[in-house]
Write a structure and sequence with these properties.
This protein has 182 residues and is mainly α. It is built from 7 helices and no strands. Helix 4 packs parallel to helix 6, helix 5 packs parallel to helix 7 and helix 6 runs antiparallel to helix 7. This is DUF3795 domain-containing protein.
Length: 182
């Protein structure tokens, strides 16, 4: 959007964790305020109309009707936790939130580099986005061990990582599947 720019491209204005999106990691998306950005973002337009807060939680109108219900579908990245993540960033502070996000980005990069058999990008992105950092650290230990100690093939590593992440998600009642618009 013309005139809308952001410094933090890990965490969007509306609460999406853009740093955990495979489109962003692959340099296919500039984010809502990087370079040309998302030209049709209604929330960026709303921000500009409300004094340019960098995050919706900084707006005097937050939470507004945009956060009244859970988003019904996902894009390239899950939008399920937008409100929760905005509130977490507000509560623990942006520096602490961004530090967690940077660690999650490194976990996702590891999974994509060492466990992606070409069919797991969305699953890994969703898992890293939706699971808590402590859960991810816990799940990552056996994955690393499997890869390093057993000299597993890429196919075996991918299957094992997917199994571990699915099990962690299931414990929390999280489905690791993008919800598509019907």
């Amino acid at each position: 959007m013309k005139g809308f720019e952001r410094e933090n491209l890990l965490f969007s204005l509306c609460g999406l964790n853009c740093g955990l999106c495979v489109m962003r990691l692959g340099n296919y998306c500039p984010g809502c305020g990087g370079g040309e950005g998302n030209q049709s973002c209604k929330i960026a337009r709303c921000s500009m109309e409300h004094g340019n807060p960098m995050y919706c939680f900084q707006c005097e109108a937050y939470p507004c009707e945009r956060y009244a219900g859970e988003d019904a579908w996902d894009g390239f990245i899950s939008s399920r936790n937008r409100k929760r993540d905005l509130e977490k960033a507000r509560d623990i502070g942006l520096d602490a939130y961004n530090a967690e996000q940077r660690e999650k980005v490194e976990i996702l990069r590891f999974l994509l580099a060492r466990c992606n058999d070409g069919r797991r990008k969305s699953l890994f992105s969703l898992a890293v986005n939706l699971l808590d950092l402590e859960e991810l650290r816990h799940v990552l230990r056996p994955i690393r061990e499997k890869i390093e100690e057993e000299d597993a093939s890429l196919r075996e590593s991918a299957a094992f990582a997917a199994e571990q992440l699915q099990a962690a998600a299931k414990k929390r009642g999280i489905e690791l599947k993008l919800r598509r618009k019907k």
